[in-house]
Amino acid sequence: MKRKTAVKKNAIIALTLVLTIFWLFPYLYVVSCSFKPGQEVIAIPPAFFPKTLSVENFLGLFSRMDAWSYLVNSLSVALVSTCLALLLGALAAYAISRSGSNLSVALVVLVLCLKMIPTSSIAVPIYELICDLGLYDTRVALIIVYAAVNMPFVMWTMLSFYKGIPATLDEAAYVDGASSFQTFWRVVLPICTPGLATAFIFTLFLAWNDFLLALLLTSTSAKTFTVGLAGFLSAYNLDLGPMCAGAFLFSFPVMVISLAAQKYIVQGMTAGAVKD
Fold first, then answer.
1. Fewest CB atoms less than 10 Å from the CB: which of 79, 120, 130, 254?
2. Helices (H), the chain
3. Quick check: helix, strand or coil at residue 251?
4. Are 164 and 126 in contact (CB under 8 A)?
């Protein structure tokens, strides 16, 4: 029995490694192409490993686009909108979970419906609204839109955590003289730290990787890195080398954050799953 168990365990590990390599292969190929000379990137037949290491693609990337400015725009917009969505979404989810009325069920269903709406279906109304407000091509527009679009995800994530916290904690805080906001901030929120970490990380990635809304709402000054990187693709030209370098530069911080925060993501997801 022990031998069969060990063989089964090793087979599962081997299968997991194969699937992981298969899943990571496109990204690893992009990383490899980032350090190839331009001729090797478009060579036929293609080679996975570069024959000579080169930073030609990175130099071409920074010479043809204001990469640092676009990265700053992406980072600032993603961080501020995520914090705003996290604050407002956590407050709204707490109010819904503690309302105790029949209306809370309808609000939960509404949150789920908002979460199901594809962004592409509301992109044009958002564009018209931002233009009417005079916020086109500004970071403020992206911050407001990203916070509004991602807030239902934060609310849906936090609702499961609030349900696992007994209402007696709130009542005890009220007896001690705490207000509703003080109860939320000092009692409930510290208990939901795993949920906040999970919502923060996923919301940050959603804002960081967005392309459609950034393409519609920006032109020059507030352009994000995803939109700037698309400038290497046109109807008559496809410069794969700088595009691969830009994709690697843009995705590498996300990979590092994902690996560093993996424990908190798993902890938050499992905690939200078992609490009811």
1. 120
2. 2-34, 38-41, 56-64, 67-99, 103-116, 123-132, 139-163, 167-175, 180-183, 189-191, 193-209, 212-217, 225-229, 240-260, 262-274
3. helix
4. no
Token pair for residue 221?
């000054």
- Domain boundaries, position 34: 2-55
Locus of tokens 């920074």 = 62
Question: Which DSSP category does 238 fall into?
Answer: B
Q: Cα 80 from chain centroid?
A: 13
This model's pTM is above 0.90: no
| C-alpha closest to that of 256 among 192, 208, 186, 218 | 208
Residue 249 and residue 138 share a domain: yes
> Same domain for 47 and 102?
no
Q: Are residues 99 and 36 in the same domain?
A: no
Say which residue the tokens 């955590």 belong to.
Answer: 161
Distance CA 166, CA 260 (A): 31
Query: Are 106 and 224 within one domain?
Result: yes
* Contact (Cβ atoms closer than 8 angstroms) between residue 156 and residue 111: yes
Peptide bond into 152 cis (omega under 30): no
pLDDT in the model for residue 267:
62
How confident is the model over 74-83, as pLDDT tens digits?
Answer: 999 999 999 9
